[in-house]
Amino acid sequence: MIVDSHIHLKHGDAAKTEYSPETIVAMMDAAGIDKAVVFAMSTTTRRSIEMAQEAMEKFPERLIPYVYALPHYERPVLAEIREAITGLGFRGIKIHYVECSLAEHIIDPVIRLAGNLDVPCLIDFGGRLADVERLARSFPGTRIIVAHLGQYQCREESLIDRCLSLAETYPNLYLDASGVVLIHKISEAVQRVGSARVLYGSDGPHLDPDTWGFARKELTKVASLGLDPVDETAVLGGSISTLLGL
Ligand SMILES: [Zn+2]
After folding, report:
1. 123 CA to middle of ligand 1, Å?
2. CA–CA distances in Å: residue 203 to residues 45, 65, 85, 148
3. What is the set of domains in the chain, with CATH numbers?
4. Is residue 115 within 8 Å of residue 136, measured between CB atoms?
5. Closest CA to 201 of 122, 91, 114, 85
6. What pLDDT score was predicted for residue 103?
7. CA dihedral 229, 184, 167, 126 (to 10 degrees)
8. Are 91 and 66 in contact (CB under 8 A)?
9. Is the peptide bond before 76 cis (omega within 30 degrees of 0)?
10. Could you give the 3-state DSSP secondary structure of residue 10?
11. Could you tell me the distance, in angstroms and rounded to a whole number, from the CA of residue 126 to the centre of ligand 1?
12. What single DSSP character describes residue 18?
């Protein structure tokens, strides 16, 4: 089973591009992807719940919803996150540095809640590895998925190496292989950390050249690494399935 662990209903690009659940599933069908984790960003926690809930209700066998954690002065988002997970069947939490501060007083209650509810947090740290380490060390009971092996489209090998070292040290860290351009680092991640903690994701949809062409290209990246078949199966879907209890 192939599971894309990183798909946007709404992106964080300048246009804050949205893709409908129908477009996403059509892309998955064309690319041969069985299931996908979906979430919205660049919007409120409440709206992210509405968007992902609609997607899950339309395609309950295909789409797995995460809630987006973004603080709000007017509403208690922690209660909204808890309700999404305990009442609506959401399976994880998405957090994005820049839109959301990773300062202790902002983010720690969310990471703690995730541990208590036993769901993972997929976090784009934007290369802030000190924050990766602080959260991994402070919350050993919370499984943290580090997006993009540490930084989106990172071309600095040493930064990715430091991220892999952190994952070797902290068993609650998982590595998201989406948005990686130095793709040999995905193989190194599997060797150093083990395929059970490396997750294929596309970070799509993107019109590059079209949605399914992009999905296919990202899938081929992992398939072209020449991983041991057991590891490849894990990275392409087995590991995220275990992590989410699918
Ligand atoms: Zn993303």
Report:
1. 9
2. 19, 14, 22, 9
3. 3-244 (3.20.20.140)
4. no
5. 122
6. 97
7. -130
8. yes
9. no
10. strand
11. 11
12. B
Location of structure tokens 């809640």: 113
Distance between CA atoms of 160 and 103, rounded to whole angstroms?
A: 22
- Residue 206 alpha carbon to ligand 1 centre in Å: 11
Whether the predicted model's global pTM rises above the 0.90 cut? yes
Residues of the chain with pLDDT under 70: none
Compute CA distances 126 → 153, 176, 195, whole Å.
Answer: 10, 13, 23
82 CA from centroid of ligand 1 (Å): 22
Distance CA 175, CA 193 (A): 9
Å from CA of 120 to ligand 1 middle? 15
pLDDT per position as a tens digit, 54-76: 999 999 999 999 999 999 999 99
User: Ligand 1 centre from 11 Cα, in Å?
Assistant: 7
Place of tokens 């784009």: 124
